[in-house]
Amino acid sequence: MDMKQGYERIWHEIPALWSPDSELLMLGSLPSPKSRETGFYYGHPRNRFWRVMAAVFEEPIPEDVEAKRSLMLRHRIALWDVIDNCLIRGASDSSIKDPVPNDIAGLMKKTHIRRIFTTGARADELYMKLCYPDTGLASIRLPSTSPANCAMKDQEIIRIYKENIL
Predict the structure, then answer these.
(1) How confident is the model at residue 112, as a pLDDT?
(2) Is 47 noted as a catalytic residue in this protein?
(3) What is residue 69's three-state secondary structure?
(4) 1: in domain
(5) pTM above 0.70, yes or no
(6) Does the pLDDT at position 1 exceed 60?
(7) Could you write out the DSSP letters of every residue in 56-110?
(8) Who's near 163: CB < 8 A, 6+ residues apart?
(9) Phi then psi for 138, rounded to 5 degrees?
(10) Which tens digit of pLDDT belongs to each residue from 104-115?
(11) Which domain holds residue 129?
(12) Residue 111 placed within a domain
């Protein structure tokens, strides 16, 4: 860790969630410290991702990792992040430096992915810069479900996700 600047190199250790019949790919930027601790995507208890996805598909909110995996795979949705590793200060996406992308194009070759969604502005910016040249598939930016995006109400986020995913 570069203690002077407070940056730490973080490696993505959560495997991509996908199946060969995945049609949609949802990309965050990098797992948060809480997600890394829980070992699965959108692991912060105040992150609204799982509530939003349950509302989109009119299903119960998944309570554990297996239920979350099942919800995504049933709806042919793959989950991953744009970044394989980077320098970052805490959990702040805006502090990301020296990002190295995951092999999104490689994942696409193993699936039927036809649409890519990014969950937030920074994930979208990083995807378009680092991955789009290899995939040729432009992303659709969805609002962040992070607790940091407190300006948007749940119902507005759910509406936007439904309009784009369904």
Answers:
(1) 98
(2) yes
(3) helix
(4) no
(5) yes
(6) no
(7) HTT-PPP-SHHHHHHHHHHTTEEEEESEEEEEESTT-GGG-EEEEE--HHHHHHT
(8) none
(9) -65, 150
(10) 999 999 999 999
(11) 8-165
(12) yes
